[in-house]
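Researcher: Next entry in the queue.
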Amino acid sequence: DELRLLSTREVDLFSCCKDRSTCAYAVCCGPAVAAKNYEVGRVLSFWPSCIMLYLAMPFSCVFAVLRAVLSSKLKRNMGLEGSCLQDFCLNLFCFPCEVGRESMEVDDMLEVEIRCFNKVRSIAPELPPNPAAGFLS
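Model: Structure for this entry, 137 residues:
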């Protein structure tokens, strides 16, 4: 249940362009993807953040400020370095790529792969069978 700590971002800004499912989600459902990230990253519950982001979307500067604040907290919770000014610019000019990158980082942290349409698959390494398990039954 612990969040693993990273110091630098391992996923670059345009990585989501190489993953069709993440790209589709980020472009078509960006606020919902961001809300999922905030819920999992212990920033804000899904529905309040999703509603706030959808309502703020028509106001690009307000939206970018809101995303910068919430994303800064998400990065801090994940142990990533961040800058509020950089987050503001990324969300103002390249929101789908930034939310897609965040989603890939959160999914990596959870060791899951999320595909269209809401198909979740574990990517955690499987543990070898415990040979002592037969003796305990």
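Model: Strands lie at 112-115, 119-122.
Researcher: Noted, moving on.
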